Amino acid sequence: MQPHPEGGWYKETYRSKGSISSSMIEDFGSDRSFSTGIYFLLTKENFSAFHRIKSDEMWHFYDGDGLVVHEIKPNGDHIKHQLGLDLEKGEQPQFVIAANSWFASEVKTGGNWCLVGCTVSPGFDFQDFELAEGSELAAHFPAHRQLIHRLTRS
Length: 154
Description:
Elements: E1 2-3, E2 9-15, E3 19-20, E4 32-33, E5 36-43, E6 48-52, E7 56-64, E8 67-72, E9 78-83, E10 94-97, E11 102-107, E12 113-121, E13 130-131, H1 134-140, H2 145-150
Antiparallel strand pairs: 1-2, 2-5, 3-4, 5-12, 6-11, 6-13, 7-10, 7-12, 8-9, 8-11
C-alpha cells in the first residue's frame, strides 16, 4: 500500500479496461475508466482529510473497527455515515458518497484501524480530486467549522 494524499494508505485493485468518452460526461476534461476500486486503510492516528471528487464513491467495509465518514453535501447538510457490521448500532456494510460532496473519514471512537474498499464510477483520476483547505471550507460551511478544522490538514 502507498500513502494517500488525503491520509491513510491505499492500493488500486481494479481499473476497468473500458472507458467513457469525456464528451459523454459533464465536467471531466478527458476520458475516464468505467470504474475503479481500491483497498483503503486508516488507523486511529491517521484520518482521511476533507476532500471531494467528481464521481460517486461506494464504500465497502472489510475488516477492523468501524469507520465514520462525514459527508457535507453541496447544500451544507452534514451526514455522519457509519461503516461497519454492527447493524443494531446504525453501521452499514456499504453506502455511497455522492459526487461533489465534501467528505472525510476516521476510525470510530475507541477503534484502532479499519480496512475498507472504495469503488468509484466513472473511475477515479487524481485530476478529479480536490483536497480541502480548512479555512476556506469552514468559511463556506460555518455550521461545520469545528469538524472541518479537526479533519483538514491546512
